[in-house]
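Researcher: Let's do a round of design. I'm pasting the structure tokens now; please hold your answer until I've finished.
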């Protein structure tokens, strides 16, 4: 284990926000994690677990000890009757892992290609795209209790997955008391990939591609390529323009509330849900309020997708976390004033 002091986090968060960590430890194994927790100089200090940094907003220098998870490893485990079980270390790059599963002839993750971040961060916000969420392919994970160093295993039910949500986003102080935010370091994740693979083609973007290319039964690799191309066309590459993907969750409203909005704005993009509620496209709502391409300081709204906030600064003078949050609040206010809907941010805000 190697302890680094006064480390710049600018290259370690996809927004490219300039902030520093007083102490950073690169965790490359379960033993490293245990050693960091037991280290006399670190044991009593609060910890902050950092994965790929693709879903966080740093609002200042991080005072907690940053545990940067870099645990490697990918393997196929003896499978169950209906699934192949595949395990990856929490530090593996998500997209490379998806590619690797396809190279092993084990499809099932292709709709989630090109999502930035690490395998260990994927369950935290239950990543999802083009009709598949992590919870649909999840088997279980091993994590370390940051207070005791004990390793424990959670199945899907215990992870409490919801739309871009899990127990890892809630603090123990919240109702129910089951939250694990700040309590756990995810070490490894195991996936259950169906032996009887079926393509997930419900999304309009994928339907369009099938028509354009005259393909009625695409292979997993074709779906992978279409998702990669669609994401590249719509979303900014964090290596070029700093961002954290969708900045707000798509809100859910009642059928009556939706009918009311349609009455005033017939074009509102909405998706009826099985339980009778309706999901609205937050990107459309923000766009309708005129935010696309707008800037506040060095924080901006991406000109091709209003749901994505971007860092318009240069590396020497990037957006600050404060500017990003000020812009986010201004967007929330205008969407609330026009539609009566409170947008909920998707990334985790890291206090300074
Ligand atoms: N729209 C606009 N203007 C905009 C943006 C969107 O009118 O500026 C409209 C689009 O035309 C479309 C609708 O809103 O009709 C929805 O947009 P899109 O299909 O781009 O998907 P999304 O709802 O914005 C969600 C996820 C993405 C995921 C895609 C594909 C959330 C918060 N976002 O985006 O996830 O890749 O669907 O499945 O659920 C992420 O979480 O970081 C992320 C990128």
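Researcher: That's everything. Go ahead.
Model: Designed sequence:
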């Amino acid at each position: 284990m190697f302890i680094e002091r006064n480390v710049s986090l600018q290259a370690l968060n996809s927004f490219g926000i300039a902030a520093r960590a007083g102490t950073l430890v690169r965790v490359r194994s379960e033993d490293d994690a245990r050693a960091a927790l037991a280290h006399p100089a670190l044991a009593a200090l609060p910890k902050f677990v950092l994965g790929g940094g693709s879903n966080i907003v740093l609002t200042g220098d991080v005072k907690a000890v940053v545990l940067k998870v870099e645990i490697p490893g990918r393997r196929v485990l003896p499978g169950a009757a209906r699934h192949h079980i595949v395990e990856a270390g929490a530090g593996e790059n998500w997209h490379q892992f998806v590619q690797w599963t396809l190279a092993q002839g084990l499809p099932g993750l292709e709709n989630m290609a090109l999502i930035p971040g690490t395998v260990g961060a994927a369950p935290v916000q239950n990543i999802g795209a083009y009709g598949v969420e992590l919870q649909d392919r999840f088997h279980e994970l091993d994590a370390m209790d940051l207070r005791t160093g004990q390793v424990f295993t959670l199945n899907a039910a215990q992870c409490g997955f919801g739309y871009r949500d899990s127990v890892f986003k809630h603090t123990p102080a919240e109702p129910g008391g089951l939250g694990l935010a700040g309590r756990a370091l995810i070490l490894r994740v195991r996936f259950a990939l169906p032996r009887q693979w079926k393509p997930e083609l419900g999304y309009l973007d994928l339907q369009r591609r099938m028509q354009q290319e005259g393909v009625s039964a695409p292979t997993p690799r074709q779906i992978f390529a279409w998702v990669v191309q669609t994401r590249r066309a719509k979303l900014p590459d964090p290596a070029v323009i700093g961002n954290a993907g969708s900045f707000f969750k798509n809100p859910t409203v009642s059928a009556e509330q939706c009918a009311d909005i349609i009455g005033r704005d017939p074009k509102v993009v909405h998706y009826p849900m099985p339980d009778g509620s309706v999901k609205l496209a937050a990107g459309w709502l923000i766009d309708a309020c005129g935010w696309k391409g707008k800037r506040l300081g060095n924080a901006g709204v991406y000109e091709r997708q209003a749901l994505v906030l971007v860092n318009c600064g240069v590396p020497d003078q990037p957006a600050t976390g404060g500017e990003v949050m000020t812009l986010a609040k201004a967007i929330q206010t205008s969407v609330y004033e026009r539609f009566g809907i409170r947008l909920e941010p998707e990334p985790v805000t890291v206090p300074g």
